């Protein structure tokens, strides 16, 4: 009875603190906490579709791509000036030889801000396919990640892609380019596979790295050569085993391309939820014959299929066949020459799913709980030498394109503020000035537990859709708090302090 009473007390205490935290967050953002997982671009965030979509059959490949390009010149008909300003419009690549997986035209969405010399290029996430089976499955179930045939003519961004000052205080007035992901190669492919995967009327091509190159070329008439700052950013896509690694692999290549074009822009990278650690899960030794590869094995196989490339400075560190290690930020970072800002939840839900841990939807063992705690510690260690980072101690995935991204804080500083501080520091360094003090941009939570940051997104029970505190969720998943070393009587004060103050 004593134990039950203690547990009840602790759960009640956690509920009160969590409720207060969410109320504070709501006041800060002016929005309901139910907007925590705001619409991400590429999903339901599209509000306007001004042109009819192609109805060509799925196998028409390159012919369909040519047909789609005819819609590029469509202009906004009726609609307010504000809508036209906020929307990003679709442009297909001028180089028709660089395409999506199925041969349809690759392209980008652009919202120009006249007079601005700042450019934000955003790479969509979406993991990859690495075999005939995985590519066919992807084509059947996620065709928009392999084909442009159903892309809408306009998109409206959220978070860092928003045009609203209150939602995007530091980057709302930049030229914003959103590059849809349709190459299935983690943005690393350079052409058709050496041994093409046959389809009835087409073959897959993997041109992610080339798509980025061609987008840069097509932006020259729009003024990117006169840019002062070019930020290459990207988020992981909210689905198992999907990383925002394209930025890490391409940032130095983009900087080199712009330099060769005569541009004097400072090129920077911003990667959201792409700083992953290697999987500890034991996998089948017959991975090539299955669709259950670990991320490492998938990349090893995929690199050959995609004609994939990795940054040259990193490639030199590893012998042939080991280039896959350059897909991991903590191994690639030291070889990069461009400034990089890492945004990473310390307890990323997709990193956990790779280890078959699903918060709020299954039973959990003590070993899995221990893995979660170790993950936070290991991620902190891996970020210790990163110059610019924002890493809250929360269970979540992606941050940049959430409409309430300004509400997340580490040590009292929001992500937009940290990015502004980083911007000021880089500008001061470039102009040989002393950087401003009291403007932090390396922000990693120091508290040890998931959800110990008071600005964390709320946890939701996948069965009931009810919000829970972390301790309530652990109990619901079958864990005994006493066996985890939690003594509600002795640790109550420290737990209140931990949850209230965060890192």
TrEMBL record:
Signal sequence annotation: 1-18
Coiled-coil residue windows: none
GO molecular function, one term: palmitoleyl hydrolase activity
Keyword Signal listed: yes
Record-level GO BP terms: negative regulation of canonical Wnt signaling pathway
Bias-annotated ranges (Low complexity): 69-82
Composition-biased stretches (Polar residues): 25-47
InterPro entries named in the record: PAE/NOTUM
Record region (Disordered): 25-84
UniProt keyword annotation of Isomerase present: no
Keywords for this protein: Signal
Family label: Belongs to the pectinacetylesterase family. Notum subfamily.
Protein's UniProt name: Uncharacterized protein
